[in-house]
Amino acid sequence: MGSAILFWTYLAVMFAAAACFLQAYRVRKDTPRHKRFGITGVALALSGIVVVLALTYGLGWHVDKRSPEIVLWHRRVAYVSTALLVLTGLSGMLRWKVHPLVARVSVAVYFVALALACLGYRP
Q1: How far is residue 106's CA from residue 75's CA, in Å, rounded to a whole number?
Q2: Domain carrying residue 112
Q3: For the chain, what is the mean pLDDT?
Q4: Distance between CA atoms of 36 and 79, rounded to whole angstroms?
């Protein structure tokens, strides 16, 4: 599979998740819709991460690196972002008062990871 096809496919899924996160924030006063968009965003992001890992390590399909240094930072930030996404989901599900703050930080870190991916892997 071509590196550019993988790159654009991965980005499409991750940006779809990001759109869900932004919509979840936009409808945060409407709990059923907020939950629907938040859960969909987390599901897209986590399934995208699983697919990236499966294709990379399982099938050996790699996206060419434009900048190895930026890719290294992308991976670090992506690990933190993944942990924050899980924490955000749990805090929302358990209705912790800290959920709005965790969600804002989580989405900000997620967008940093996306930006680093765009810079580090772009064809």
Answers
A1: 15
A2: 3-121
A3: 95
A4: 24
Instruction: Indicate the pTM of the whole model.
Output: 0.91
Q: What is the three-state SS of the chain?
A: CCHHHHHHHHHHHHHHHHHHHHHHHHCCCCHHHHHHHHHHHHHHHHHHHHHHHHHHHHCCCCCCCCCHHHHHHHHHHHHHHHHHHHHHHHHHHCCCCCHHHHHHHHHHHHHHHHHHHHHHHCC
Contact between 63 and 7 under an 8 Å Cβ cutoff? The reply is yes
Question: How many domains does the structure of the chain reveal?
Answer: 1
CB 122 within 8 A of CB 66: yes
Instruction: Give the separation between CA 26 and CA 94, rounded to whole angstroms.
Output: 21
The pLDDT score that the predictor gives to residue 22 is 96
Please report, for the domain that includes residue 31, its CATH number: 1.20.120
Could you read off the pLDDT of 64-123 as tens digits, one per residue? 999 999 999 999 999 999 999 999 999 999 999 999 999 999 999 999 999 999 999 988
